[in-house]
Amino acid sequence: METQIARVFKPGNQGYFLFGPRGTGKTTFLKQKYPDAIYYNLLDYELFRQFSSKPERLADVLREVKERTVIIDEIQKIPQLLQVIHMIIEEKRGICFILTGSSARKLKKSGADLLAARVLKYSFHPFMACELGERFNLDEALEFGLLPVIYSSPEKATAIKTYASMYVKEEVLDEGLVRNIGNFSRFLEIVSFSHGSILNVSNVARDCQVERKTVEGYIAILEDLLIAYRVPVFTKKAKRILIKHPKFYLFDIGLFNGLRPLGPIDNPGSIGGSALEGLVFQHLTAWNSYRGDNNKISYFITKSGLEVDFVIYGKETFYAVEVKNTSNVKDSDLRALKAFSQDYPEAKPVFLYRGKYRLKKSNITCIPVEEFLKGLDPSKAGII
């Protein structure tokens, strides 16, 4: 099924890095787009052994190659190959390198900027609703997320549970990113409660029974593995006293549901609200990424408790977006957007909810969230 869904990602004509978490469909996309490319997958142990023991072997096997596309999957496994690739590019034989990675951590340390002037950098994301079209089901997306590897699985619930475990083993444990895998596994479970909320590192550290510095390191690992984001507060020309702590989001709702433990006292409504907000966030992130990261995504919160979930700000873009897991629009739901509009009349306020009808309340556009997600298209400059 994954191969039948056209992705909206449109790369340029030169070589590029394509970063994205495992399971987002990078390899499937590239094999479809470049069927005649020379392809190396560094997850193949024999290939990994050959190139890691002697990185210059890549230059040897490509010695007579000209005017071809060469794809190297999971380049972070052997960062030393970047120097060899740089040398081959300098020979100007017309070889176009496409390098994929599910982690930026090793590449940062090894100097991936070496190729910055010659190789573009893109990000790949889970499915967007506009890619799925009529196949998009909001309730299923909120339960299982939109990772292609999960979406195409006949056993979605089981696949979600194993996805986090795969990352722990293959990315964290095998790469030696943490010393105590038990502490990190406990951290993953505890930090899932922060999804869609203000991130209080001290509280997470206390619940994990580790030092604050350790938790800060763990969060940095999640960001380098491209599976979590910290969203800053929108502070431009602020007229009110603001809270400065970032909010925290996992990159896909399926991962959130896979990590988040449920118990008798959990409130389904609050969990559903976090999931809905996270689903909107991952769509906004993908939309902005595929458009070239031209906008900044932040949120707005005052010390008095007024909060707007997302502020999308760019050279020609300014939206304030509030997301509510409700089927009706109440005046109290719009209070924060109205306050934000008073401070920033240039912004277009948008309220997303679980109802059926598009409405206009004062200057606020109220849109059913499913309609909004299906209409969010990276080929369009605006979000509505």
Question: What do you see in this structure?
Answer:
The protein is an alpha/beta fold. The protein folds into 2 domains: 2-123, P-loop containing nucleotide triphosphate hydrolases (Rossmann fold), CATH 3.40.50; 129-375, no CATH class. It contains 16 helices and 14 strands. It has helices at residues 26-33, 45-53, 57-61, 81-90, 105-110, 129-132, 138-144, 148-151, 156-173, 181-191, 201-208, 212-224, 253-259, 268-290, 335-343, 369-375, and strands at residues 16-19, 38-41, 69-73, 96-101, 120-123, 197-198, 228-231, 247-250, 295-301, 307-314, 318-323, 348-353, 359-361, 364-368. A hairpin with a 2-residue loop joins strand 13 (359-361) and strand 14. It is globular and about 70 Å long. The relative contact order is 0.10.
Strand arrangement within the widest β-sheet reads 9-10-11-12-14-13
The count of domains is: 2
Helix percentage: 25-40%
Shape: globular
* Total helical elements: 16
Q: What do the pLDDT scores average to?
A: 90
Assign the structural class, choosing from mainly alpha, mainly beta, alpha/beta, alpha+beta, or little secondary structure. Answer: alpha/beta
Strand-and-helix sequence, N→C? Answer: EHEHHEHEHEHHHHHEHHEEHHEEEHEEEH
Low-confidence parts lasting 5 or more residues at pLDDT below 50?
none
By DSSP, the count of extended strands is 14
